[in-house]
Amino acid sequence: AVVSTQSTGEYLDCEVSARPCCIGLQGECVIISQEECEFRQGFFYENNTLCSQVSCITEICGLSGFLFDDIPDQFYRALLPTFMHAGIIHLLITLVFQATILRDQEKFAGWWRIGFIYFASGIGGTMLSAILIPYMPEVGASGALYGILASLLVEVVVNWKIYKSPCIELTKLILLLAILFLVGLLPWIDNFAHIGGFVFGFLTAFVVLPHINYSEEDRIAKMVVQIVCGILAVILFALLFIVFYLAQGSTCENCAYLNCIPFTDSFCQDATMELRPRVGN
After folding, report:
1. pLDDT of residue 152 exceeding 90
2. Angle, helices 111-132/142-158, rounded to nearest 10 degrees
3. Taking the complete model, does pTM exceed 0.85, yes or no?
4. Using the 8-state DSSP alphabet, how is residue 98 labeled?
5. Inter-residue contact 70 to 54 (CB < 8 Å)
6. What count of other Cβ atoms lies within 10 Å of the Cβ of residue 228?
C-alpha cells in the first residue's frame, strides 16, 4: 500500500496496490502487487481485495468453468488429454501408431470394439495419473495407445491355438512393452498413464474382443473370464473416480519410482512435481 499525507495533516490516504494473485498449477492465491504478480506469471485481480473473492482454480483450469467453486467437476477432462499433444512430433507418433497397429486391430475386431478399448484406456490412464501426480499437466494419447498394445496381448491369449508360434508372438509383445515401460521411467514421460491405460486395455479387451471357442468348456471358461474382467474394470473405474473426487488428500510417495527413477538428486525433481496431497486455496 502506498501512503500519502493530506495537506491538512489530519488524515492519511491509503492507495491499495496489492490485490489477489493466482499463481502456479496449485491455484495458490497471494496478496501482492500487479508487478510482482506479472513477474511470477500469475493472474492479477485488480477489482478484488481478498483471496476469498476469487477462484484461482477456475482461472487456471479455464474452459467451461465449474458448477461448484470448491469441487473439480469438469468431468470431460478425464478424456480431453487423449486428444491433445505437446507438439508436432508427439502428434506424429500417435498418428503413426493409429495408422499401423490401431488400424490393423480395427480391421480384426471392428471399430466399436477398438474404440471402446481406446477411450476406456485413455480415461483410466488419465485418472490414475491425475491421482498420483495431480500437479503435472497431461496431454497425449499414450494411455489409450498402451491399452491397444494390451489388447494385442489379449488377442494372442484368447486365440492361442490359431497362431503358428504363439509363444514367440507373446514374447515379442512382452519385450516391446517392457522396453516402453522402461522408457517411461525418464522425466516428463507419464508412466502412470501408461500403466493405467494398459490395465484398462487388458481388462476391456477380454470383454469385447472376438474369440474362437474350441469346445463347450472353452466357451464357458472364456465367458467367465469376460464377466470377471468386466466387473474388475467397473470396480477400478469407480475406485479411481471416488479417490479423485472424494479423497483428494490421498498420496503415494513410493509410487514415484514407477514414474521416474532418480539417478541423481535433481533428475526427477521437475518431472514429478512432488507427490503430495492436493490442497485448497
Report:
1. yes
2. 130
3. no
4. I
5. no
6. 13
The residue annotated as part of the active site, out of 129, 142, 151, 211, is 142
The radius of gyration of the chain from alpha carbons, rounded to an integer in Å, stands at: 25
Alpha helix (H) residue ranges in the chain: 34-39, 56-61, 88-97, 103-109, 111-132, 142-158, 166-183, 191-208, 216-246, 269-272
pLDDT in tens, 240-265: 988 887 766 556 677 777 888 877 77
Quickly tell me which residue has 498418428 as its cell: 95
Burial of 241 (0-12, 13-18, 19+ CB in 10 A): middle
What grid cell was written down for 79?
Answer: 478424456
Check residue 1 and give its pLDDT.
Answer: 46
194 is catalytic: yes
Handedness of CA 94, 172, 229, 161 (dihedral sign): positive
d(CA 24, CA 27): 6
215 assigned to active site:
no
| Catalytic residue, candidates 55, 121, 194, 211 | 194
Cell numbers of 163, please? 497362431
Count of beta carbons in the 10 Å neighbourhood of residue 274: 13
Please identify which residue in the block is written with the cell numbers 499525507: 5
Q: Is the pLDDT of residue 236 over 90?
A: yes
Chain segment 40-66, per-residue pLDDT in tens: 888 888 888 888 888 777 666 666 666
- Supply 246's cell numbers: 472424494
- The SS3 of residue 273 is coil
Q: What does residue 98 show for φ and ψ, rounded to 5 degrees?
A: -65, -35
